Amino acid sequence: MVKIKTKILLMSVLVMLFLMSSAYAATNKLIIDDVDVKVGSRTSNNLNEGDTIREEAKPGDNLEVKVTMKNNYTSSDNMRIEDISVRATVEGIDDGDDLEEESSTFSLSSGSTKKVTLKFKVPLEVDESTYDILIEADGSDRNGTSQDAQMTIRLDVNKQTHDIKITKLDVAPSEVACSRKNIKLNIGILNIGTEDEETVNLGMSNSDLGIDIKDKVIDLLAEANSEESKFSKTYTFSVPNSVEAETYPIDLSVLYNDDRKKTDGTVQLTVSDCPTATTES
Question: How does pLDDT run along the chain (281 residues), one tens digit per residue?
């Protein structure tokens, strides 16, 4: 007898859930009609609930989530959905924090669609993993009935074994004239690969300016969001007075993985003539 009552109760719950689901589907007319995601320069089209984006992301990649929303009321319903906003959340990708972007609000007439694009940048300091992207939309129709939709897709982040990024490269001041001493060259690098770099060789040079600076970094770890994965330093140099007025490139080379891999950067320094003082006769 107890087993029969339990079965009846279970069936009642299932029927109730089905009816609630059917009622929701009948009243909810704001739908996600299509999702495309661009990672870097390549796009994965027509993604569905639970899909993994076909293109893997790398640290620093640009990410565009393109969501097409549809008002699924028919023309005979003549029901406009208003104050629609679309949000996309990349969950836990930024050192455990989310990245979130939201569209401006818009309205859709019966049967019409609109595509919105939400833009992100994958953090340079990110763990290799799979991250959920939650897409949510909400609005309300003219009857005041709330309309909402959501969908989850997945993003794989993959990193190169050996990869160092230049995060800072500037010179201060960027232009010199009469005062040509104590010019500061500021650099910053970051290990965004999956392997520690035991030795990183730095070289900064410009033969016209007489710059030939070399330095060595020991143990640059492959650990996202760790100070041990970063290196920054300010180097000081002077420009000889004999250097002619012109804009000069200062080259930075970063050698790693036993000097088998190289990252380059360039910053410009403008040298101007020093105006000579004149006296009135």
Answer: 555 555 555 555 444 544 444 444 457 999 999 999 999 999 999 999 999 999 999 999 999 999 999 999 999 999 999 999 999 999 999 999 999 999 999 999 999 999 999 999 999 999 999 999 999 999 999 899 999 999 999 999 999 999 999 999 999 999 999 999 999 999 999 999 999 999 999 999 999 999 999 999 999 999 999 999 999 999 999 999 999 999 999 999 999 999 999 999 999 999 999 987 554 54
How far are the Cα atoms of 11, 12, 14, 35, 170 from residue 17, in angstroms, in the given order? 10, 9, 5, 28, 62
Q: Taking the model in full, what pTM does it have?
A: 0.83
Separation of alpha carbons 23 and 37, rounded Å: 31
Give the whole-angstrom CA distance, residue 68 versus residue 79. 19
